[in-house]
Amino acid sequence: MAANWQPRTILPGYTTVPSPITSLSFDPYTELIWSGNSHGQVCSLYGLDGQRYTSFTAHRNSPVKELCLDDRGIVTLGANGVKGTKRSAIGKWMVQEPRSSLEAMSMSPGSSEVVAGGNQLDLLVLNTNSGSLVRKIEVPEPIRFLKPGPRSSVVCGDVSGNVQIRDTRVSKAAMQHIQPHKDGLLGIESTGNILLSWGCTTRFGRVVPEPLVKVYDARMMRPLPPVSFPSGPSFVKMHPRLSTSVFISDIQGQFHVTDLSTSTGTYHMMDISSYVTSMAVSTSGNHLAFGDAEGSIHVWTDLEQGQPEQFNAFEGIELDWPSEIQTPPRIDWDDRTPLNSIGLPYYDTPLLSSMPLHMPLPDSSPMFNPPVPIPASVTKTLRTDMFPAHAQNPPENKGKRNVTPSRKAGRSGRNRIGGRKSDEPKFISEQIREKMKNGSVDDQQSRLQTQAESLEGDADDTATAVMPKHYRKVEIKYSKFGIEDFDFGFYNKTPYSGLETHIANSYTNALLQILHHIKPIRAVATSQTTLPDLKDNCLLTESGFLFRMLENGNGVNCQSTNFARALTSFPQAKALGILDTDAKSNGSAAYGNMIQSFNRFLLEQMSVESWTFQPCPQICNNGNMSPISQLLGIESISVSMCTDGCGSRSVRKGVTHVIELMYPRKTLSNEAPLPVDFNSILCASIIRESLTKHVCPVTKQFVPLHSRRIVSTFDTQFPAVLSINAGVHSKENLDIWLKPARPPGQSPYTPAPDHFLPLLFGIKRVQDQIHVVTDENAFTADMGLYSLKAVVAQIHPDAESNHLVSIVRISQDEMTDTTKSPWYIFNDFLVRNVSQAEALSFSDWKIPCVVYYEKVDIDSYINYAALNQQIDPSILCHDLSISWNRDPSMIKHEVLSEDELPAPGSLVAIDAEFVSMDREEIEFRSDGSRSVIKPSKLSLARVSVLRGEGRLEQKPFIDDYIHTSEPVIDYLTEFSGIMHGDLEPSTSRHTLVPLKAAYRKLRLLVDMGCIFIGHGLSQDFRIINLFVPKNQIIDTVALYQKKDSHRKLSLRFLSWFLLKQDIQLDTHDSIEDARAALLLYKMYSAFEKDGRLEDVLDDIYNEGRRLNWRPPANSGNNNGSNTPANPSYQVRGPPQQQTQPAAAVTSPSASAFTGSTTYIASPTATIPPFSPPVVATTPYNPQGTHHPWH
């Protein structure tokens, strides 16, 4: 076998520039040789003739490091990813790992999976058919080599020289490992139970290749006699058919064919002008291929002349070759040759030139379609001062150019070319701009407003195939002004607040809306927020804070940011798959299954967290359980009995909070059909009787085990709320909801119910059975009566995307308009009133997920007085810090005394600083425009609240740095003043508190009726996730904005102009900013009282336009230390402080500025001693060189 190896052919490379062949492989299913070079190109050659079959670029800027082939195609490995391709060079999938450097890849034996590894500390197990990530396997060291191992394992070689055998089916530690080469590993090879390795050794202080190939028995990692190779092995391949034969080669072109059992063999030398870069052996074992640095492939064979030369010993897959193009016959003709002598090809269909005129032409044809008239919004701004005439294109007309729009106005607006959809609102800034320009919003916006108001009556019958507009997935659009510019009011004209979608895990909005509108659950959650000791990441507490926002929002959109942050901190949530990761959030996630798992997890977690109440309040007559379990808990005893005759019986008590609907199995042809009505399914789901095979604890045999639940709840005690998971996982289950059946025992002439879900049903326990009745005439006094409260439905208009909505029945005492239906749909931030028939109807695109029922007499059933709803105001009088090394000199606040506790209408100044937790994602289009796909994620890092009045006016009583356990991407030090280490307890020198502690203080101030003064507070409160009513906000951005201008002035510019203070020079300080906002409000009040406000605003805007709205670089103001002597713009202060006399100054002549206004100074007061000296400002003095305006 080893004596007649001889060179067969040299296949040249097909690249223009010679590129080393970095990977080489014979196709085990066809007669192809595959090669990959250092430029990322892959080429396949057919047979020994080297006919090129395919060639393509698999990886850009990376060499092809590995090639793996199966019956469906080829998988290639690059430094930054793995790619699956068909043999015809058509790409199937691509998995990119931009943050890691992949080094090795191997097929997983016995499965359609491939394993890849590299510098990252885990192995990627990918499905070769779809490219999906099956699992990740953690490894202790970066991987350099991977080969198929025995059975379902792979052999791994890492950077430390260790060789491990790992089972890729589980994420466990290595089964076996050795370290054959202490000075480094150069390669491994594995076939069956034989493992080969070669590496480096140290000689005379230098690391050189070891002249041995070490052999191991892979079953026990037992060493076998090594094979000597004096020149140092570089490539080793096992013979595919002879288990003891091995091919060993070095880079110089010398290779050895040896037998492991006898250690004998023959040496061969290739005629090569460069060096060997790769090696492969065919599956028949009759051909060897060597790739060199010049891109050529040297093929050797041991076949005699005349023998069939095939790479495979069997007939493989037939290749698809391109069709041969027949060359048309050549015709000799000249100018005198008649054209009819050439002829035309035969045809059996009419020619295009013979098309009759009566045939319809497409909409884009100019024959029957005149050009679209130029919109009036363009013609009214047309300018003819130059040729040709030109006009500015309004934003609503922008889109793709040189494309004729379709004339078929689709119902959903999907045929519109470019621009936003026809049923989407304009940005608020666009509406304001048009209103200022035209006096009113244009006709299109007015039409959209009318359309939005009329959506409530759109398509009440959801059983139709057409989905109403208010069920569509709504998305937030971002302008250059951010999310504040989005018109949420367009989607919600009701007094019930919706929830925004731009945060992680926003799919939970549907269930959170339901829990909010169930009054007892809301009361328990909001009462939890009043407890003095709150642990971090408590879902019940975060729900309570969220419910308070929704309760006070009165139709203003809210965010569940803090709740989503707390949810991601639970490892159980990740294990259950209820976290909406980036991979899922593209719309393809199974949100219907996720919301049902989330419903189970949330109620169980809330039940555990509600034990925080001490003592536990008795809110209803359901025994000694936590408050949430008192509301939703179903006490039961699970009984399991062996049916093998041994008589073993196990009993387990428990409390369940969710009823999982169990649908009847498919019956046989000779069986009577099982009942599929709501009553029967609910009864069977509560009892959950089943027969499954388990190991008997007595006989230790695998026998059938009968199990059922005995419920003790529905005899005298009834849960206030029933939570039901619909569990619609198949078309058969959905058909039960779409085609309701009548309950058993009714007359066949009785019509079936219109809807599967009843509006009202009664339930009671009779011995060990549960009876459910939907006929109101059959209700008895000992029954618990439940009415339908809410439904979560999965909406999927197509097969690729889906989202969730909730439909809730609003309680009678919370209805603001009793003439409307009590049913409302909550589609994230879209809220609409819907009919009862629509709420109970389902369709192929509207699938039920979660259902909630509540007792009819729930308000009289619950003891709300046992739940405290007021936060203890003494938390404002206590100083809390979790910093280990707080520096007393860094404490800038003084907590309130008991006699300083705020009253309704008390003024406080506030400012907050934030850090970035995630960067924004921006899409740059080919026309140069940009669009924000996902905004940056900011988190509260510092909040400062100052007294706005009283003896200690301007003195902070809250100055908290916020501890965060999430990684901070950017501290934004230039804008926040937060440094690295300020938010860690071990390194912070400031007053550091948990987020929940700071949030409770702010929540308390809102509840106490404080009026917040600040600059740009809407954005601050949004990030803090706190809703503050508009009548409790005084925003200096709005105070100093002219009515006829959309320009908003910065705090720094206003402070420089009015207060003569240069703030925010090097960084931001929340105390300084809050104090500046307070002083600006005081000045605004004085200007408004004196009737000078409009004149001052004119001066500010004139100076702003002159300086481009930025203070001069060196204005000379440093907290008022260089202010002029004649004060005019002044701040009223505490009366007990020493004041300066007022001065009346007349303005300069009319030539200096328009008008002859006289600015009279208000009575002035100095600032309390603890604050920087803020001196009153000067009169308007355009000729003074010392004035910062000039």
TrEMBL record:
Residue ranges with Basic residues bias: 408-419
Xref: Gene3D superfamilies: Cysteine proteinases (3.90.70.10), Ribonuclease H-like superfamily/Ribonuclease H (3.30.420.10), YVTN repeat-like/Quinoprotein amine dehydrogenase (2.130.10.10)
Assembly mode: Forms a heterotrimer with an asymmetric homodimer of the regulatory subunit PAN3 to form the poly(A)-nuclease (PAN) deadenylation complex.
Residue spans of biased composition, Low complexity class: 1111-1149
Keyword terms, alphabetized: Cytoplasm, Exonuclease, Hydrolase, Metal-binding, mRNA processing, Nuclease, WD repeat
Protein name: PAN2-PAN3 deadenylation complex catalytic subunit PAN2
GO molecular function: metal ion binding; nucleic acid binding; poly(A)-specific ribonuclease activity
Record gene name: PAN2
Family assignment from sequence similarity: Belongs to the peptidase C19 family. PAN2 subfamily.
Region of interest called Disordered, as start-end residue ranges on this chain: 388-459, 1107-1149, 1164-1190
Reactions catalysed: Exonucleolytic cleavage of poly(A) to 5'-AMP
Main location (coarse class): cytoplasm
Enzyme Commission number(s) of this protein: 3.1.13.4
Free-text cofactor note: Binds 2 metal cations per subunit in the catalytic exonuclease domain.
Annotated compartments: Cytoplasm
